[in-house]
Amino acid sequence: MYPSCTAQYQTSPFYSLNQTGLAKPPVSPQHPLLLPPPPPPDELKAMALQSLRFDLSIIEAATKNFAEVNKIGAGGFGSVYKGILTDGQEIAEKRLSTSSGSGADEFQTEVVLVAKLQHRNLVKLLGYCLERKDKMLIYELVPNKSLDHFIFDLEKQRQLVWPLRYKIIKGIARGLLYLHSDSHLKIIHRDLKAGNILLDEDMTPKISDFGMAKIVGENKSLQHTKRIAGTYGYMSPEYAVHGLFSEKSDIYSFGILMLEIVCGKRNTSFFHSAHAENLLTYVWRQWKNGTPIEVMDSALRDSYVSNEVARCIHIALLCVQQDPEARPPMTKVVDTSHESPTQAQERDGLKLPQGPITRSDRLEPS
């Protein structure tokens, strides 16, 4: 004969018949559960590096042994190859030259920090490869090349109608704002230019090439270097002459880039013979005369919106002012990107720009 469950319940009920509710749960222990301590910083860094590291054999297979047909760029930094990983991910492999200047430890630290940056207007770093003297960075592949391939080419610049150029300007601004203020790090790019803005299949801009970027502390607004590196025509006066840089240096470069996008001309090669002007002084004269639309790329004549063009020129001239403190922060640039110059001035958002540097007031080396 088997024991009855009913009989067991009747003799030993699961709850007290003298109570209206269920029996109270057991009292939790007085001492909380102790978790193991987090790994030390060096161990965390090692774990992060391991997750980002690519074997050389994988990169060789993806690029077909760095075949010349897959080479999509070259410069002082090294060469760039496109490739496809076994899972179908398209990559851009950037092999740094041996003269790039950073050692293995510095290179790995930079990789861990940059890999944490996540923004739709920044090129995503997928990982790295470090084999003996070879240092390689693995990025997502951005298919439409760089911005300079479009705005400085007489045929291709016609593809960049004003709505696209305006979208590109605002996207670059948001990416730069993220670097300066919105990420967990404060990063100064130091080489913002048309060649370092990549365009994806939807022509969304992505800031690339962080080889010269500097990570600074929250309370450090100005840095100094004796090794001035960058691109002539985009460097701020205080950086080019004195080696001083800050987020305001990036803002100067952004202003130059905005003018190039609007005008379709390189800052370094533009010269207006009638007035002996460079691009900055030419744009400033037209702005002062109340005719800023005259500087616009002729390819935009059928697609431009006058208020938007004037707004971009206004912001650009503020960004390239000689005094770094007079340049607006990227927060204000992004906030006022949807306002007309008059609206921005009325609410004290943006002031009138000062004139550009001339030969007579150019900064002198110290």
Radius of gyration: 28 Å
What does the largest sheet look like? 5 strands, antiparallel
Strand portion: 5-15%
Q: SS-based structural class?
A: alpha+beta
Write down the CATH topology of the largest domain: Transferase(Phosphotransferase), domain 1
Give the count of helical stretches: 12
Order of helix and strand elements from N to C terminus: HHHEEEHEEHHEEEEEHEHHHHH
Overall mean pLDDT stands at 82
The CATH H-level superfamily of the largest domain is Transferase(Phosphotransferase) domain 1
CATH architecture of the largest domain: Orthogonal Bundle
Q: Can you tell me the number of structural domains?
A: 2
Q: Give the helix proportion (percent range).
A: 25-40%
What gap, in angstroms, lies between the N and C termini?
A: 105 Å
Overall 3D form: globular
What is the level 1 CATH name of the largest domain? Mainly Alpha
Strand order within the widest beta sheet? 1-2-3-5-4
How many beta strands in the DSSP annotation?
A: 11
| Uncertain ranges | 358-366
